[in-house]
Amino acid sequence: MLRAGDVGVLLAGAGFVIGLTVVAWGGPRGDTAVIRAAGQIVETTALTHARTLSVKGPLGTTEIEIEPGRARVAVDPSPRQLCVKQGWLTQSGQAALCLPNQVSLEIRGRTAAYDTLGY
Amino acid sequence: MTRSVIELPVTPDDRRIARLAALAIGLTLVEAAIPSPIPGVKPGLANIVILLVLLQFGWRAAAWVSALRILAGGLLLGSLFAPGFWLSAAGALTSLLVLGLAQHLPQRHFGPVSLSVLAAFGHIGGQLALAGWWLLPAAALLKLLPVFAAAALIFGAVNGVIVARLLAGPASSGRQSASCLPPSAP
């Protein structure tokens, strides 16, 4: 039922779909993490090697974990843990906000996805 | 009883196209009743008929059946000349153009599944091109492209397998050609 060309067409179609998915859903990968406390940038660091940062806020200490290519908020004292639950951030323009503790982690790439974001 | 004075000559070809178009319209109506999780993602059952017509009677007959299906389907579903109708027409037109090119592929290697998948991509491509140009800003459509393309791939492959089985099966292919015969007593 399936001829050789059919398999080729199906494979090409699958490749096309995967390519579209990457183009449409995958944003540019970020290479820099910008960490703010109370609106002021406290640290701008490249996503090149693993390290952890501690940032003090009004509620306590927020710990930010950085690994090659990604970063996350590992520990935060805020009650609902929203920024921790966001998990790893990889794409340019992604951000995790720990509002009660006034700490934010933002990923930036070579090309900014947005001019500015208002929270 | 009034007798019609206008007699339109009807060739067996016309009857066959009308019969096949009726089949395609029926499938269009059936499909409209199937709930779909995402608007616009449909199995495209009528394309099975279009493909069978293309392979058995050529591109011209397929184009006729497709055009009649779109028009009559629009009438029956109440969407004639509504945006959905134009999307459907754009998809069918692109799909026919793709099929017109794809039917020249060597038959030894490319069977109905290839034609069906290519037609499905053509269908969704034509629809989305018109939608992006006319109805929705292209940026919003970009995020939906993978969903539609994946649906086209899956449904195109399934429809192609159905066509291949209809053409290959001795019982069903016999029925198929029998149903396409002109009626014995007009």
Provide a short characterization of the protein structure.
The complex is a heterodimer of chains A (119) and B (186). Chain A is α+β, with helices and mostly antiparallel strands and 119 residues long. Helices cover 22% and strands 35% of the residues of chain A.
Keywords for this structure?
heterodimer, A: 119 residues, alpha+beta, mini-chromosome maintenance (MCM) complex, domain 2, three-stranded antiparallel β-sheet, 7 strands, 22% helix, elongated, B: 186 residues, mainly alpha, Arp2/3 complex 21 kDa subunit ARPC3, 8 helices, 73% helix, globular
What would your notes on this structure say?
The complex is a heterodimer of chains A (119) and B (186). The N and C termini of chain A lie far apart (57 Å). In chain A, strands 2-1-7-6 form a 4-stranded antiparallel β-sheet. A 3-stranded antiparallel β-sheet of chain A has the order 3-4-5. Chain A is an alpha+beta fold and 119 residues long. Chain A is built from 2 helices and 7 strands; from the N terminus they run αβββββαββ. The mean pLDDT of chain A is 88. Chain A has helices spanning 4-25, 82-85, and strands at residues 32-37, 40-46, 51-56, 61-67, 70-75, 95-98, 103-108. Chain B has 186 residues and is an all-alpha fold. Chain B has one domain (12-179): Arp2/3 complex 21 kDa subunit ARPC3. In chain B, 73% of the residues lie in helices and 0% in strands. Chain B has helices spanning 12-33, 46-57, 59-77, 83-102, 112-135, 138-142, 145-168, 170-179. In chain B, helix 1 (12-33) packs across helix 3 (59-77), helix 3 (59-77) packs antiparallel against helix 4 (83-102) and helix 5 (112-135) runs antiparallel to helix 7 (145-168). Chain B is globular, with a radius of gyration of 17 Å. The two termini of chain B are 19 Å apart. Residues 172-186 of chain B have low confidence and may be disordered. Classes of the chains: A alpha+beta (119), B mainly alpha (186).
| Biggest contact | A-B, 17 and 27 residues
Total strand segments of chain B: 0
How would you sum up the global shape of chain B? globular
User: Order of strands across the biggest sheet of chain A?
Assistant: 2-1-7-6
Under CATH, the topology of chain B is which? Arp2/3 complex 21 kDa subunit ARPC3
Count of discrete structural domains of chain B:
1
Radius of gyration of chain A, whole Å: 19 Å
Uncertain segments of chain B of ≥5 residues (pLDDT<50)? Answer: 172-186
